[in-house]
Amino acid sequence: MGKIKTHKASAKRFSFTAGGKIKMYHPGHRHNLGMKPTKRKRKLKKAVYVSSARMRDLKRLIPYD
Q: How far apart, in Å, are the Cα atoms of 40 and each of 23, 27, 29, 55?
């Protein structure tokens, strides 16, 4: 059986923690920041963990990380 290819776009956006969780940053914090409230921008800065519902799909996209 051959190897599974890594989805490179997903590999750049998500990273695995030592405990096996997947960490991600919120989208929408790159441009057009002048129109967004400060509270929203502050919340977008923080990293979050991916929900368990999306975990299975992401492990298939990033098999070797």
A: 19, 12, 9, 25
- The pTM score is 0.77
- Per DSSP, the residues of 1-64 read --PPPP-HHHHHHEEE-TTS-EEEE-SS-SS--TTS-HHHHHHHHSEEEPPHHHHHHHHHHSTT
What's the pLDDT tens digit per position in 32-49?
999 999 999 999 999 999
Sheet containing strand 22-25, edge to edge, reads 14-16, 22-25, 47-49
Architecture of domain 8-61: Irregular (4.10)
- Give the start-to-end residue ranges of the domains of the chain: 8-61
